[in-house]
Design brief:
By secondary structure, the protein is α/β, with parallel strands linked by helices. The chain contains 9 helices and 13 strands. The chain has helices at residues 48-58, 73-85, 128-136, 153-159, 178-183, 197-207, 248-261, 266-280, 293-301; strands spanning 8-13, 17-23, 41-45, 63-69, 88-93, 99-105, 111-115, 138-143, 163-166, 186-190, 212-216, 222-226, 229-233. The protein has a 9-stranded mixed β-sheet with strand order 5-4-1-8-9-10-11-12-13, sandwiched between helices. Strands 3-2-6-7 form a 4-stranded mixed β-sheet. Helix 5 links the parallel strand 9 (163-166) and strand 10 (186-190). The mean pLDDT is 94.
Length: 305
Amino acid sequence: MTRETHASDVLVLGGAGVDTIVQVPELPLPYAESYMIDSGIRTRAGQTGDFVALGLAALGLRTHHLDLLGDDPEGDLVRALHREQGIGLTALPGPAGTKRAVNLVGPDGRRLSLYDTSRAHPDDRFPEDTLGALAAASRHVHVTITHPCAHALPALRATGLPLSTDLHDWDGENPYHEPFAYAADVVFLSASALTDPERTMRRIAERGRAEVVVATAGAEGAHLLADGELTRIPAVTPPAPVVDSNGAGDAFAAAFLYGRLTGEPPARCALYGAVAGAFACTVPAGRADAIGRDELLERVAEPSR
């Protein structure tokens, strides 16, 4: 079906929440009874699903986000972010509250994330009628690995829609990630916890239905597996000093999907992702921002990058 027959280009499932950002003098943080944080401690909306949705919308893709949110101040921040950015949001009641995390960010932009796992209930589910209607109105579904997205995978696969997911810092062994890895057509993950990225990437492709697997590697670029061929994607020089790596992987995924949905080949999509990820590293931790389509295409066209 063509773009015109769908209400949205991408449905983003899960990953809505807030982060509390703490700028620390170094990581790992040496033990001390107290630290003075002169830069302030800030709480803002924006976890993986929010940032993917933000990145997609900034690139001109019609985007809708579905997740559980609490009736709490954190949920209000998430709702406000989507409203301000013009991103469609279906927020279902989350009895355990809105997902939240604390990010310790070092001077070099690296981070340590502490996730509050109490903000989910084992019985949480997306209603089948709501999920089905939103999926049917979309060209593509990006599934985050937050609860309860795993329970939605069988229904999403039955729709025949293309799926993508981001496994983040999967070590290649944790069984929680496997249903996502093997259900998606496009799989993103970080190479940070992998001893052999190529082996893990090929296993994902062999055991699942992935047409493309991308393992991002920070300043070393990314590894792209497409059509059985492994290619290294060089890193892109950020347009400004690096201040925070949080959201870089989400930006990469959003720009890659933009390329895929506009008919670009995998290597070109990965270049889009590298440019968007580099831009994201220059955005201060307390701000939600994403590269726009015009700037993305201009930077991709630059010979020096």
